[in-house]
Every structure is written in C-alpha cells, then in structure tokens.
Amino acid sequence: MSRLQAVQKQSIASSYGLPNLTKYIRVRSKPDARFVEFDFAIGEPSLFVELIMPPAVFKVFCTNNAVVHMTDEQMADVDAELEKWRYGDEDTLMSQNRNRSA
Fold this sequence. Notes:
By secondary structure, the chain is of the alpha+beta class. 48% of the residues lie in helices and 20% in strands. It has a domain of 67 residues.
C-alpha cells in the first residue's frame, strides 16, 4: 500500500469516527488447502469472526486490510478463553468431564 493510500484509508476511517485499529488474522487451514479458513479480528484478537476465502481473494483481503498475524501469545489467550466458554471454570461439572477425557 502506498503512503497516499494509507493516508486516504486513515482519513476515511477518521471521517466515520472509526479509530485506526489493528486488524488481526489467524489462519486455521493447512497451507495447501483449497480455501483459506481464518479468524479475523479488529482491535481485539479475542473478538473475531471465522471466514473462508479462496487463496487469491485472501491475499487481496490481507493487503487491503493491512492485517497482522496473531502472535503465539495472542493465539494461546484466545484458545484459553474459548476453553473457558466451552467448559466453564475449573469447579464445574463440564470442566471435570473435560479433564477426564484428556
């Protein structure tokens, strides 16, 4: 993205009252998959949507959104939060079931 495009993009976001937030991705599909399955988050990695796109479209999407890959730490935090939502705290019956199957 050229400097002019970046300034224009920031100006458009500002005119709508949108802050210039970081956009994160986490690719979940295999590198040779027919479609790219990924998580996309704006501003906060733990608040994401799951998307699927052909590789060529994914590449353009990433360029247009100036995405950043989630760090290992961010991915671990997201996974831990998902586990908590799925199984609850350590003292719940569902959590005990998870621990038995592991």
